[in-house]
Structures are given as C-alpha cells and as structure tokens.
Amino acid sequence: MAEVKPEEISHPPMEQLQGFEYCIDSNPPWGEAIILGFQHYILALGTAVMIPAVLVPMMGGSDGDRVRVVQTLLFVTGINTLLQSLFGTRLPTVIGGSYAFVVPIMAIIQDSSLAAIPDDHERFLQTMRAIQGALIVSSSIQIILGYSQLWGIFSRFFSPLGMAPVVALLGFGLFERGFPVVGRCVEVGLPMLILFVVLSQYLKNVQIRDIPILERFSLFICIALVWAYAQILTAGGAYKHSPEVTQINCRTDRANLISSAPWIKIPFPLQWGAPTFSAGQSFGMSTASYKAAARLASATPPPAHILSRGIGWQGIGILLDGLFGTGTGSTVSVENVGLLGSTRIGSRRVIQISAGFMIFFSMLGKFGALFASIPFTIFAAVYCVLFGLVAAVGLSFLQFTNMNSMRNLFIVGVSIFLGLSVPEYFFRYSMAAQRGPAHTKAGWFNDYINTIFSSPPTVGLIVAVFLDNTLEVKNAAKDRGMPWWVPFRSFKGDARSEEFYSLPFNLNRFFPPS
C-alpha cells in the first residue's frame, strides 16, 4: 500500500455544503416542488399531533377539542412559516410547535385554581385561556430582543467553536423522541427506519427521467408503505389482545381524529374566549436552528441583523400562538431542517408550498385528520435520521477551528456533555417530584429557570459562549475560527448576504439592514 502524504488527507474548509442541486434562492420545477412541500407538511404533522395529544387530555379536553387544537396549531404553523420565510430570516425553515414550552405549560395546567374546576370542558377552556395569556406575555420578550437588535449584539460573542456544540445539541438533545419511541412499536418503527435509510442513502442514485426519485421523495414513499403495512396489521387483528399502550402506539385507528374532526373549520383568533393574564410564565429561545438551516440551504451564515429579524418575527409567531390558542409556543422545526439535508433541496419555495398545505388541510378537517392519524412511531423512526443529520451539521462548524488545541477540545467536550447532562437532571427531578428543581415563591422565576435548563441547546449556548469568551481568549482568534466568521457578522460583510437574505418586494429600501 502506497504511503499517504499529509496533504492528501486534508479537507479544506468549505463555507457552503456541496451536492445541493437547489439552494435557498433556486427552485425545482413546480411538480417536484409541490411533492417536496407536501413531504415537509407530512413531517410537520408529527409534532403538531403529539403535543396536543399530551396536553389536551391533561387540560380536560375531549377528542373534539384535541382535533381543534391540532388544526389550529397547523394553521398557525403555516402562517408563521410564511411570515418567517418572507420577512424574517428568509431561510427555508418551518416554524412549528415546540416541546420547549411544555414545561411551563404543564405548570399552568397543574395550577390549583384551574385543577379545581369540576367540569372538564370548562377546565379545558379556562386552562387554554391562561396558556394564551402566558404566550402573549412571553412573546414580548422575543419581539423586544429581536427588533431592539439586542440579540444581534449578543450574537457578536458567537464563533464557529461556540456554535458547533449548540447546533449539535439541537439534534442530540432530542434523542428521547427517536428510538425510545420507535421501541414502543418496534414492528412498525424499525422497518420504517431501515427502509428510510436504504431508500434515501443506499438507493439515492436511482433516477427516473434524470430525477433522483428515491433520494428526494424517500420520506413520502416510506411513510406511505409503512402506513399501509401498519393498517394491514391493525385490520388483521395483530393487536387485538395487546396491552393498551401497544395499541395506542401501533394501531392506525386509535387516534380518534377523523371521527372527531369537522369537515370544514377555519381557526380564528380568540376562538377559545378572551385570554387570561398572569405574571407567571415567559420563555426563552435558541438561535441554533437558523445556523443549521443556513448551512443545509447552502447559504452563508445569517448576519447579526438577520438573526435579530428572525427572532423578532418568531416573537410575533408566539403572539399568534397566543391569539389563536395553539396550546404551545412555536420555534424552528428541527426535523424539517434535517429533511433539507436528506433531500439535498434547500429551496425557500418548497417550504412556502408546505406552509400552503398546512393552512389548506387545517381548514379541511377530515382530510387533515386522515394524514394526522399516521402512528407517531413512524415519525420517530424518521427523527432518528433527521435529528442525527442536524447534529452532524453542528459538528461540521468545527472544520473552521483548530481541534488540535486543548482549549477548544475542553470547550466543545464540556459544552456537549453539560448540554445533555443538565437537562437530563431537570427532567428526572421533574418526573420524580412533579415540579422542577427551581421552586421558589416566584412562579415566573421558576418557569424561566426550569425551562432554560431543560433545553440542551440553551444550556450548550450558555456554557459554550461563556467559556469561549473567557478562557484564554487573547491569542485564540484563529483557533476559534474567527477569521472565517467575522465577515458574516454584518449584512455587507459578504456580497452573498444580499442575495440570500434581502427582503422581498424591494422592502430593504424601507427597512435597511442595520
């Protein structure tokens, strides 16, 4: 075997990922774009169905209430996605329901004054109104952070070294939504996982009319096949004598969504009544998804001004969540970011088409409920791939840093470990004590602390940015990757920023980058 020279095994850093046929501002043909958009809609259903399935019964809601919450969440997800892709960061990101809000929302649900209401439906309405009020109040934090440029100022402390563990934790931190859920119905989840990997990776070069059909549409094909397989198992009586938990996770007829859904129902603001306000609940957010989405859209990192604009619009999205009553706040959908990489299509138009599907099917209740009845185990199998892909995108930022530096190894290792370990402690404590580790007399403070430290990317952000800006900083700029990073801090620092992030309809004349 010939000796390998050092220069032959080096891989020069690349600002944009390669192999993407369509990036953020290029568009596939309309037929392909529509199918790709439908794939993103189907993927977004997982979270849109799961969060209400957990929260609504605890609030006292019926199957009919759960269907309305799912419809409302999808409707607002479509609106927020359009607003973010048009006027926010302009990245191809789906803005959907967030699990990060579940912790403080559970605190509202368990409030003694609400839990004491004897009538289930009245308790559901009163609890929903309290959640709406909390979301409206909390939205002001992101709106202020975004439009005041405070988040943009804070982002000047970011570096490739600091962002790598944060974006990686965006994927790694969701491990509990992966194979642990697949294992609840392994005969459905495992075939889905294997089939998705085989079609999207091993058979990705199979083409029909010069289109890599299996790479681009593997999600749609796999879900259709495994859903039909799960339907056959259900109809054949495979779960007839199984435990209740197995039937819930495996059967295709246990969601009760189709029978409970109206044919046509248009969500509207204040549909649950006027929100009630308490000084008790507000929440935090993360920038990691935008960094990952930019890389998977083959775009340059979003400048500070664009990040601030995106955070501001994300705040408006949470305000809409509160006004419409989605039952949770919203953030960037990590699984949809991963799908950009799996399909190698980072087109903004595809995401906007998916937003159209969300709005359309949320109004046509029966049709939307049909797709929403897909067993969640199927989605969990896909998450195993997509969350891992997003985590790997985070690790790819390390190519711009010196990973032979013990300083850098320390920061990355400690940030990732604490980003996983601290939230796990908060989760286990909450499960055992039925409350978070922070339990002072100030409820708003408890919610802040318990929410922030239950989020792996947020813990990683705090640890990584603090260490990166305080530990041997004097001569570490090159090791941190700053020579590559600095041009992307400002809108005019790189000529491509205008191409990727300028507002549509020539609105930059009225809202110039600051």
From TrEMBL:
TM region positions: 38-57, 157-175, 182-202, 217-239, 350-372, 378-397, 409-428, 448-467
GO MF, one annotated term: transmembrane transporter activity
Subcellular location: Membrane
Keywords recorded for this protein, A-Z: Membrane, Transmembrane, Transmembrane helix
Annotated InterPro entries: MetI-like_sf, NCS2
Annotated Pfam families: Xan_ur_permease
GO CC, one annotated term: membrane
SUPFAM superfamilies reported in the protein's UniProt record: MetI-like
Topology within the bilayer: Multi-pass membrane protein
Stated family: Belongs to the nucleobase:cation symporter-2 (NCS2) (TC 2.A.40) family.
Protein name (Swiss-Prot/TrEMBL): Nucleobase-ascorbate transporter 2
UniProt source species: Oryza barthii
